């Protein structure tokens, strides 16, 4: 089976300024793949390229087995897209937004009506079908965007920061939807700033910084690569982080120190690895 998404040596520049730099990775069907990175890392640009909204300056991209540049119409049939900026139309009702998208994708009736009903029910918006979108909460709008993106039965769903700005409960609800869609067979690529989102949802993680992919793997692969044990050491006002292969090694290190004050050992997490790699915290 071909990869769901494949990028090989992809570059993107705007006015000769490089924003994506030699990006290569693949996503297999059925994965939830997370792109994590600070502001300006190039995550949205990557999603925009993969969803045919902007062209790579250089490199090879295939989505759903089709060449992105030569077969973009086919690519569009196989992908669902929820971007930060692509908002739903506030002056239309929930149902009208779905209708519009269904018509744009040439879904004939009665399937169109049936699928709109089915997906609105799935995202728990059936009882708001006649509400104007401007009267919905942020979480409801995001659920509508997801329902709309699913209407033409895509195989791959792209979500650009799907839970940004949502309260913790709404975020959890969206996570359940994402996991459930994946269980039904959907391949998902999402970008996020939230470590816990990646830890909770993603099978594999790509960490981007400055337009480059600086690390790639499952959480446990990343942890064993950088160290599963960590010693936090207070040096005046700040903390130093020292990685060790295991938590036991981290504890042994502390026990060997003549002065153990201001030191503690714990298991490493994604945030520790991210800070180690980029020198920055995200939130
Ligand atoms: N249309 C554009 N024209 C010029 N520069 C752009 C354009 N789109 C993005 N950039 C620049 O490309 C870089 C990467 O932006 P991008 O939005 O891909 O990052 P990001 O990782 O998604 O960050 P964020 O989390 O803030 O959305 C930034 O420096 C941004 O200013």
From TrEMBL:
Residues 5-235 form the ABC transporter domain. The keyword ATP-binding applies. Its main location: membrane. Belongs to the ABC transporter superfamily. SMART domains: AAA. Keywords: ATP-binding, Cell membrane, Membrane, Nucleotide-binding, Translocase, Transport. SUPFAM superfamilies: P-loop containing nucleoside triphosphate hydrolases. This is ABC transporter related protein. The keyword Nucleotide-binding applies. GO terms for cellular component: plasma membrane. It is found in: Cell membrane. One of its GO terms (molecular function) is ATP hydrolysis activity. InterPro entries: AAA+_ATPase, ABC_transporter-like_ATP-bd, ABC_transporter-like_CS, ABC_transporter_ATP-binding, P-loop_NTPase.
């Amino acid at each position: 089976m071909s990869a769901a998404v494949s990028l090989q040596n992809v570059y993107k520049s705007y006015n000769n300024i490089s924003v994506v730099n030699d990006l290569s990775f693949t996503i297999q069907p059925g994965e939830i793949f997370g792109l994590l990175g600070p502001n300006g890392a190039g995550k949205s640009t990557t999603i925009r390229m993969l969803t045919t909204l902007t062209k790579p300056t250089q490199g090879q991209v295939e989505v759903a087995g089709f060449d992105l540049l030569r077969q973009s119409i086919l690519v569009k049939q196989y992908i669902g897209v929820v971007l930060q900026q692509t908002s739903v139309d506030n002056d239309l009702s929930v149902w009208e937004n779905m209708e519009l998208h269904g018509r744009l994708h040439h879904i004939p009736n009665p399937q169109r009506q049936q699928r709109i009903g089915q997906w609105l029910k799935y995202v728990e918006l059936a009882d708001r079908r006649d509400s104007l979108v401007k009267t919905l909460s942020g979480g409801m709008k995001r659920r509508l965007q997801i329902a709309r993106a699913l209407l033409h039965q895509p195989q791959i769903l792209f979500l650009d920061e799907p839970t940004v700005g949502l309260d913790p409960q709404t975020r959890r609800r969206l996570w359940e939807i994402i996991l459930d869609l994946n269980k039904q067979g959907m391949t998902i690529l999402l970008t996020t700033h939230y470590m816990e989102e990646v830890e909770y949802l993603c099978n594999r993680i790509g960490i981007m910084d400055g337009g480059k992919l600086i690390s790639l793997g499952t959480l446990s692969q990343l942890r064993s690569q950088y160290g599963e044990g960590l010693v936090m050491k207070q040096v005046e006002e700040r903390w130093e982080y020292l990685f060790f292969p295991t938590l036991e090694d981290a504890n042994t290190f502390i026990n060997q120190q003549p002065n153990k004050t201001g030191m503690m050992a714990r298991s490493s997490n994604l945030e520790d690895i991210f800070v180690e790699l980029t020198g920055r915290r995200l939130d």
